[in-house]
Amino acid sequence: MAAMAPLDLTEVLKNAPPGDWIALSNDEKRIVATGRTLDETVKAAKESGEAHPIVLKVPPVSALIV
Amino acid sequence: MRFPYVLFPARPDAAFPARQAVARPALAISLRRGGSDIITYALVDSGADNCIFPASLAGQLGITIPNQNAYVFSGTQDAPQLAYFETVTASVWDVAANRPHTFELYAGFCATLEHIGLGLLGQDGFFSRFTVAFDHRNRYFDVTPTPES
After folding, report:
1. Any bridge partners for residue B39, and if so which?
2. Cα separation of B41 and A12, whole Å?
3. Phi, psi at residue A26, to the nearest 5°?
4. Nearest C-alpha of chain B: how many angstroms from A66?
């Protein structure tokens, strides 16, 4: 199989509010909604016309050890 | 199936003053139960015993928690953590085949993953079903279904 460039979300997430839920467009190119709760974020994303958003958070601390 | 690493934004700090991004072996995964579904990112994490997601996702899938399938585990925090498990249908996109790869997943939902906002794909449920090979240098990983999966 061919090599593959990494999926770079740094630009699309650079102004994302840390700690909030974020809904990305299904093509992962833009933020379609943000919110304090997942419910309100998904609702807003669908109201914006994005039927299948991808949801995530940008943690307040960027290092991740789980 | 080959997946790219995902570059997430990071802030420089004293230990890593030049760091602007972190590369993680993560993938977009759809979770479905009944008529409900949600798509999120999950970290492929060989150090996790199970597959666990933030608790909020359970609500989107119509899963009421707490339920009877409680599981106590420990992570980096001092206190024991609780996850509640339910079987969901998971799908990841197989780019080469141009179709989803779908499998049943006994997934946990945990309040202590809320602050991370990512799922974890661990040994039981993911590594038990797929052979995973990481290529950090070239920023991709291969996920191959095992014959029994």
Report:
1. A54, B30
2. 15
3. -65, -25
4. 6
Residue B85 neighbours by CB under 8 Å, 6+ apart: B50, B67, B69, B70, B71, B106, B107, B108, B109
Is the pLDDT score of A1 beyond 60?
no
Report the gap between the CA of A63 and the closest CA in chain B (Å). Answer: 7
Q: What is the pLDDT of residues A4-53, one digit of tens each?
A: 899 999 999 988 988 999 999 999 999 999 999 999 999 999 999 999 99
First to last CA, chain A: 31
Contacting A with CB below 8 Å, chain B residues are 2-11, 19-24, 28, 38-41, 43, 45, 47-48, 54, 56-57, 59-60, 75-76, 96, 113-118, 120, 138-140, 142
Average pLDDT value over all residues in chain B: 93
Question: Whole-angstrom Cα distance, residue A64 to residue B13?
Answer: 14
